[in-house]
């Protein structure tokens, strides 16, 4: 029997862990094939270091962390971070995503929310949703927040369909995975309070201890 496949699209290598690390681990334990697709190499995240060294370290970290949470395959699209408009105009990023969806035929697709305040994250949202449409994809599509710590737009989103996943048994693994991103601790540590807060807040919808919630787009 063919494994159920799920693709998670993130702007940077730590985004999917911050937003969906518990869900990824839970799905992997259930025997699902998880494919993580990262748009940007993240070489510009530490401007005081040489970009090639940062990229090398981030790829090394990602490989280790993805093994920890059960990601089956890691794909780096290597879309340049400071050429978002140019890439979009060329449709290069859209074509790459469309081809991946057609190749792997996932049951679920996850990507960033259009409400995220980070411009790279909104770019990923636009590209993925465009690719989904062009691919004629009929599966489920969900979005997640990373840099929307307080869910300030939840008033707008709360009436929309959601997928809430009980991650009580995988939340500790998620935290360990976040902490393993040593190169990104200046950013990830800022988000740890909101990771805890949102996991507990969302858990109330499931009567559990910790949970992750995603907006259903399709």
Could you explain how this protein is built, in words?
With 218 residues, this protein is an alpha/beta fold. It has a single domain, classed as LmbE-like (Rossmann fold), CATH 3.40.50.10320. The chain is built from eight helices and seven strands; from the N terminus they run βαβαβααβαβαβααβ. It has helices at 15-29, 51-69, 84-90, 92-104, 119-135, 154-157, 171-179, 185-203; strands spanning 5-10, 33-38, 73-76, 108-112, 140-144, 162-166, 211-216. A seven-stranded mixed β-sheet has the order 3-2-1-4-5-7-6, sandwiched between helices. It is globular. The two termini are 26 Å apart.
Summarize the structure.
By secondary structure, the protein is of the alpha/beta class. Helix 1 links the parallel strand 1 and strand 2.
Largest sheet: 7 strands, mixed
Can you identify the CATH class?
Alpha Beta
Shape: globular
Structural domain count: 1
CATH fold type: Rossmann fold
What letter string, H or E per element, gives the SSE order?
Answer: EHEHEHHEHEHEHHE
Termini Cα gap: 26 Å
Structural class of the secondary elements? alpha/beta
Query: Helix proportion of residues, in percent?
Result: 40-55%
CATH architecture: 3-Layer(aba) Sandwich
Strand order of the largest sheet: 3-2-1-4-5-7-6
**What is the fourth-level CATH superfamily?**
LmbE-like
Number of strands: 7
Q: Could you name the ranges where pLDDT drops below 50 across 5 or more consecutive residues? A: 45-49
Mean pLDDT: 85
